[in-house]
Design goal:
The complex is a heterodimer of chains A (143) and B (171). With 143 residues, chain A is mainly α. Chain A has helices at residues 2-23, 35-46, 64-78, 83-94, 109-134. With 171 residues, chain B is of the alpha/beta class. Chain B has one domain (26-169): Glutaredoxin (3-Layer(aba) Sandwich), CATH 3.40.30. Chain B is 37% helix and 20% strand. Chain B is elongated. The chains are: A mainly alpha (143), B alpha/beta (171).
Chain lengths: 143, 171
């Protein structure tokens, strides 16, 4: 019973966080009439870091710099720039750090490779442990 | 023996964490180092305004200082800028400001700048990769960015990061 109550409370808490972050989205105005363009715009500004307010994207920040960068994205999209061109524009000025998904390079290889590496180590450890356990003698007496 | 692998992993993790301790996350390396100041075409704050461009920053080693009258740390470094403006030309980029407020600021606190270009729309600041005022760029005589400092410029930073580079430029 307690466990049930606890999981309901946890879910409620997580849900409220999700809703709260929706409510705090700053840039709610419609930049493009076209639904696809608007969706693209939302995705692009969500992927660009606000550098004055780190750990927020320019979509979530109301700082003047984020406002200027959103205008830059809107203008470039209206002029037909691709996502890649817009990210490259930000990167040339603010470095890899401006992007939430930094490109693969010699500097970022550790960042990108570490999850796969950790997973490989975990799987290796799991198999080794399972193998060792399967070779153990099962004693019914309990000793 | 069975602790060796977890211990090694833990040590590696600790190594990465220790490396991060001394770093200031607000200091972001600029990709613009060793590049020329991006082209711009702005008006100065002076009355009447004068049209200025990146070419006007050239001639001798100089500073380009990004400031705004709203910016608290710009006020803190202002006296020091006044002081070093006798040694090196300082150009201003007035960012995200109201021209009236900016002019009043210079009247009240003194004007260390050869000129302040008024970046009304913040476009030149974006081209310069500016993310927080004050920012100070050290330029060589050709207008190439040699060093960038984010935050207040003070005697300590000046002696550590600027003076050695400036001495090299002036050789």
């Amino acid at each position: 019973m307690m466990r049930y109550v606890f999981s309901v409370l946890t879910m409620g808490f997580l849900l409220s966080i999700g809703l709260a972050s929706q409510a705090f989205a700053i840039d709610r105005e419609v930049a493009f009439e076209d639904a696809d363009m608007q969706a693209r715009y939302q995705r692009v500004i969500h992927n660009i870091r606000c550098l004055t307010c780190q750990n927020q994207s320019i979509k979530d920040s109301n700082s003047p710099l984020a406002r200027d960068l959103r205008r830059e994205v809107r203008e470039q999209m209206a002029n037909g720039a691709s996502d890649g061109e817009i990210y490259a524009f930000m990167q040339a000025r603010y470095g890899d750090f401006a992007l939430y998904k930094p490109p693969l390079s010699a500097k970022t290889i550790a960042l990108w490779a570490s999850p796969a590496l950790l997973m490989a180590i975990a799987v290796f450890a799991l198999f080794r442990t399972l193998k060792r356990r399967s070779q153990l003698d099962i004693s019914v007496d309990g000793d | 023996m069975r602790f060796v692998l977890p211990l090694a992993l833990f040590a590696v993790l600790c190594g990465f964490l220790v490396m991060g301790i001394g770093e200031d996350p607000t200091r972001i390396p600029s990709p613009l180092l060793d590049r020329p100041v991006p082209e711009f075409d702005l008006q100065t704050l002076s009355e009447p305004p004068v049209a200025v461009s990146a070419a006007d920053l050239q001639g001798e080693p100089a500073l380009l200082n990004v400031w705004g009258s709203w910016c608290v740390n710009c006020g803190r470094e202002h006296d020091f800028l006044m002081q070093i403006s006798r040694d090196i030309p300082i150009f201003g980029l007035n960012w995200n400001d109201e021209p009236q407020a900016a002019r009043q600021w210079l009247r009240d606190l003194g004007n260390p700048y050869r000129f302040s270009a008024f970046d009304a729309e913040g476009r030149v600041a974006i081209d310069l990769g500016v993310y927080g005022a004050p920012e100070t760029f050290l330029l060589d005589g050709n207008g190439t960015i040699v060093h960038k400092h984010v935050g207040e410029l003070n005697p300590e930073v000046w002696a550590r990061d600027f003076e050695p580079r400036l001495a090299q430029l002036r050789q």
